């Protein structure tokens, strides 16, 4: 745990000085931090608990719309973000209670369906969401004179979000709940025989993952300043969040953050360097990681570290 806390401290310190050193590269950094937070939140359910979701864009969109609708009614983001987290947790509870009795790929398919339902609601309930044309976030209050539309302020908010989610996972991985998550992931029947309620454990994981994701979605809405349902609830965004955690290493503290740095950074580099060929090279990179390091980058490093440690013990 000490190593993780040191890494978290390094992230905060580096993030604190980043805008001073690279003031012209804040947008890409905000994207990396948001995806790091979303993927780490996704990993609470998809990695630590083993329940793969392909619908986390629904929580991103829910958070963004809560902030946007709140702003149109004079509700400040620091009130709207907790409200978004609560709304996402309630949605996850109802969603999970209905679908966690499904086995195999059926839960993953249900997550796609729920995200699509929310997209259709956002399109058809124009009186609330602006409909298919979307909704602008025109004004936001300025706490202590801070412009929340400025990229610097948004960077520090994204940094706080990513650091907060990673800190949450560090704590969860070391407490009883974290061990319950891993027990259910490895063998539900054995966990049940040991006295655990697998559905209850998965519900708590889903609610925590959803609430954290929705907070990041609210920040994303502030960054975009315009929310359009076809984009914010898209399957592509859900897949990107899941891929970020899988490529980095599921069930690890730092895997999703490393995945965000690699995928978002590589995507931006390929787009500017290779122009039309960027998607091909991006796809080859993902394929190479899946084929040669199926545990993810950090997952493979952890595996090799554990093997070396046991080998030294066997020799001593």
TrEMBL record:
Keywords: Cell membrane, Membrane, Transmembrane, Transmembrane helix. Pfam families: BPD_transp_2. GO terms for molecular function: branched-chain amino acid transmembrane transporter activity. The keyword Membrane applies. GO terms for cellular component: plasma membrane. It is a multi-pass membrane protein. InterPro entries: ABC_transp_permease, LivM-like. The keyword Cell membrane applies. The chain crosses the membrane at residues 20-42, 54-72, 78-96, 117-141, 153-172, 205-225, 231-247, 254-274, 280-302. It is found in: Cell membrane. This is Uncharacterized protein. It comes from Rhodoplanes serenus. The lineage of its organism: Bacteria, Pseudomonadati, Pseudomonadota, Alphaproteobacteria, Hyphomicrobiales.
